[in-house]
Amino acid sequence: MDLDFKLEKVIEVFDLIKRLSWGAIPLWFALTLPVIYIAYVKLLPERQAGNNEANTRWQRFLNWFSVPRMDKFVIYISLAMFIIGTMTLLIDQNQKEKIRNNGLRMKQYFITKNNYAVSRSSLIKGDFRLFNLSSKDINKVLELYPNEFIEVDDSTIILRDSVTMTKIISTSEKLLDNFLSNPYVSDTQDIDSLFDRSTFFTREVVYKLIVDSSHKYTFCLSTCKRPSIVIRRKSP
């Protein structure tokens, strides 16, 4: 049982190392190396070497790693790793801040377009695009924020942030309600044709409108030409 407990702690340490940012790894080594060295020194057996043994090559090699000499090496290495770790941590944080800002820009782009699904190319090409944003930058955002954005097979970026997505769907629902309430618009609309009219009118938006405004619209099936889902405006 004690062995299992120790193995579990070792696994936790390795998991922690894997979760560490690359910029924090040198700093982590700088802080842990002295602790490991102190534990190592305490475990060293007392050296009772005779005068004859001191003259052997092996003994001279071991003396090179003697405690006083190793103390200096550990101190110098720890200081060097601390300085390097501080620099790499700052670089890493700056890179993550840049990725975070790109993620916020992408989220604002979704809000401006009032759409929770846009093509990757629209983000980096065309007149209505995000400047100074490359495909590599998008990959970094997708990697760092998998709960905020996801990419599907057809290179479409889908927003997963629930708050922003709810806001976009709510705005689109109001636009769809306004469109269908127009007396010059047919009171029966095929859902698929609605999306052709505007990318705002996705199936999620249509379904939400039917549920939220069941007193105004009904959900039915049509088999005139092909089976399809239809939204129908009720007569006043």
Task: Give a quick set of tags describing it.
single chain; mainly alpha; 3 domains; 3-stranded antiparallel β-sheet; 9 helices
Task: Report on the architecture of this protein.
This protein has three domains: 2-41 and 64-93, no CATH class; 101-162; 171-233. The protein has helices spanning 2-19, 25-43, 57-64, 67-113, 120-124, 135-144, 162-180, 191-197, 203-212, and strands at 117-119, 149-151, 156-159, 188-190, 217-222, 228-233. The chain has a three-stranded antiparallel sheet with strand order 1-3-2. It is 61% helix and 11% strand. The chain is mainly alpha-helical and 236 residues long. The N and C termini lie far apart (74 Å). It is built from nine helices and six strands; from the N terminus they run H-H-H-H-E-H-H-E-E-H-E-H-H-E-E. Strand 5 (217-222) and strand 6 (228-233) form a beta hairpin.
Order of helices and strands: HHHHEHHEEHEHHEE
Strand content: 5-15%
How is the main sheet built? 3 strands, antiparallel
Domains (count): 3
Question: What is the percent of helical residues?
Answer: 55-70%
Low-confidence blocks of residues? 1-6, 46-54
Briefly note the structural class of the backbone. Answer: mainly alpha
The largest beta-sheet arranges its strands as 1-3-2
Oligomeric composition of the shown chains: single chain
What is the β-strand count?
6
Rg over CA atoms: 32 Å
| Distance between the ends | 74 Å
Helix count, per DSSP? 9
Mean pLDDT: 75
